[in-house]
Known about the structure:
Radius of gyration: 12 Å
Shape: globular
Helix content: under 10%
Structural class: little secondary structure
Number of strands: 2
Order of helices and strands: EEH
Number of helices: 1
Strand content: 5-15%
Number of domains: 1
Amino acid sequence: xxxxxxxxxxxxxxxxxxxxxxxxxxxxxxxxxxxxxxxxxxxxxxxxxxxxxxxxxxxxx
Length: 61
């Protein structure tokens, strides 16, 4: 878990990013749901974020 312990107690989540279970680090009313895809088929193609390198960084095939 990346960023474990960084979220405030009022946030529904355990960290910033899960490498074991991508997309499950948080699901919060204010932050929204962790957008990290859990498989390459769901890779985020975007012009932002240098083509999605950060949001899709731990996907596997």
